[in-house]
Specification:
This protein has helices spanning 13-24, 89-101, 114-121, and strands at residues 3-7, 52-58, 61-69, 74-80, 105-110, 126-135, 138-147. With 159 residues, the protein is α+β, with helices and mostly antiparallel strands. It has three helices and seven strands; from the N terminus they run βαβββαβαββ. It has one domain: Aminopeptidase (3-Layer(aba) Sandwich). The protein starts with a strand and ends in a 12-residue tail after the last strand.
Length: 159
């Protein structure tokens, strides 16, 4: 499996929205009693880019993306198509975004998205803030996770 990376733009919004919707259509992060189907949800919608985007593709199929803002040192979105998760694609995009930011980074995650929270914590992020915000018709808990700058292995001095 060879992964190719490219810089994305707002022209890729439809592709990225599709990847995002598939990743969020997970019973672990939706409440079946209050949410009937993806078409009726107050789902995340990609705003105007206002930052940078990297897109990962495998066999010429776009399967993951990360949107980030260097000035805010923040990852806006990082989503991997469910069929391509657990293959290191998300970690690669995360590390490439942090290399571009060149400093500590943050990301906001829904508390109910336990898999994502654990994924970030397993990559050195720590909880720096939490709050409630109206989302999907009710108050929803969010976490702000931050990670110090991680030096890529290629830049570590050899012994």
């Amino acid at each position: 499996m060879k992964m190719n990376l490219r810089h994305g733009s707002s022209f890729d919004d439809i592709i990225c929205q599709g990847i995002m919707d598939l990743a969020l259509d997970d019973p672990a992060i939706t409440d079946p009693e209050t949410q009937s189907s993806i078409e009726h949800q107050n789902r995340f919608r990609l705003p105007k880019l206002g930052g940078r985007r990297l897109i990962a593709s495998i066999d010429r199929k776009d399967v993951a993306f990360v949107d980030y803002v260097i000035a805010k040192q923040h990852i806006k979105y990082l989503f991997v198509h469910p069929k391509y998760q657990r293959k290191g694609i998300g970690a690669k995009l995360l590390n490439l975004a942090q290399e571009q930011i060149k400093d500590a980074i943050s990301v906001n995650v829904l508390c109910i998205n336990e898999r994502a929270v654990l994924w970030y914590l397993g990559r050195g992020f720590k909880v720096s803030n939490c709050w409630l915000e109206r989302f999907n018709g009710g108050k929803t808990a969010w976490l702000k996770l931050t990670r110090a700058n991680v030096t890529p292995q290629s830049r570590r001095p050899s012994k």
